[in-house]
Amino acid sequence: MKKEMREACFVCTTPYQVIGAISIVNAYKIDADIYILGMFDAYREVAKMLRKYKIFLGIYDIDSAKFRAQDKTVKAFSIASMQMLFAERTLAYFLPSQICYNKMYTSSRAHVKVLFQHVMQKRNPSMNIVLYDDGVGSYLKDSHIFKVSHLRKRLEKLLRWKLFMPEKTSLLLYCPELAERPCEFEKCEWAVMPRIKWDRDSREMLCRVFGVDQQKTITEKCILFDELRGVEKVADKKSELLDQCFLVLDEYMHGNIICKSHPRSLKETQTGITLYPNSSAPAEVLYAVMPDLEEKILVSYCSTALFTPKIMFGKEPAVIMLHRIIDGSSNTTGERLYQKLHSIYNKKSRVIAPNNLEQLRNYLNGKR
After folding, report:
1. Count of helices and strands (H, E) across the chain
2. What span, in angstroms and rounded, lies between the C-alpha atoms of 353 and 355?
3. How far apart are CA 12 and CA 306, in angstroms?
C-alpha cells in the first residue's frame, strides 16, 4: 500500500496539550492532524467542537482505555510489553496503515504516545520529534515526561527502540530558560514555544471547545486548585492538612473564595467551600476570560495552574503554594517549582510558600 505522507501530527492526552497544539499550529501555519486520546472526560466533546474550526486537517478522538494500565504491576507490565512488541497491530484499530508524518508533536512519554511514536518512526525513519510544553513537568528532569522506569528503559533497549535521537528531537517550552535538562535531551534544540493569541475570537473559540461559559467567569478573589487529591489516593493526614489550609483561607476571605477540583478527583474538600461547577474546564481558558486576573489569589499544593498566568499570559496574580505545610521539607519537587516561579516574577513578594498555618495567617492579614 502506498504511503500517504503528511506534514505533522499532535498526540494529546490533556486539555493543556490541546491548547498548546492550537497555539503552535496558528503560529507556524502548519497543516497538522490531531489525535485526542481519551484520558480526560470530555475528550470526545472537545474533538467534536474542534471540528467546527479549521485549525487541524484531521481530528481523531481515540478511546484509549486499554492503554491506561501502568507498568507498576507484573501483569500491567506484561500487557504493556506485548503492546510494545506488536505496536503496529496494537494501534491498528484507529491508525490507518498508510499514514505517516514528517513531524510529530508530543508532550510526554505516556505509554500510548510512545507506541504511536515508534510506529510512526518505523514508517518514516526521518520523522522529527518535538516535545512541547506540558506544564510544570516539562521543567523537571526527573518528571514523568522525561523519566521512565528501569524495566521500561531496558525493554526499549531490548527492542532497539531509539525514540529521542538528538539530531531529530527538539523541545518547545514557554520558558526554556527554567528547564532542567536531562542528559538524554541536553544536545537537543530547546526553543521558546509560541503563546496562543488571547484575542476575542480565540477566547470565544476556546470557551466553546472546552465548554466554558464566558458570561459566568469566576468573580471570587481567591481560587483554590485542589489537584492533590486528583491523581491518586492521598493519605488522610495530607487531606486533612489541605482542608485546614482551605478553612484558614475561607475565614480570611470571608467567603470570597471558590475551589476548582481536579477532573479526576477521588475526594472533594470537606470544608463546605463553593465548588466551581465545571471541574474539567482548563484553568488556562478560565484565566483568559478573567479581566481581573492579576487581582486574584491562586492557591494550590503545587499545580501547573499556578504557573500558567505568568508563562502563558505574562500576568502576575498572587500565588500561595502549600507544599511546605503539607509535606514539610520533604517535598523537594515542590520547592524547585516554587523557586522557578519566584525567579520569573517581577514582584517577588506575590509568590509565597508558607511553612505553617501561622505564616499563612500572617500573609493573609497583610492582604486585608
Report:
1. 13, 12
2. 7
3. 21
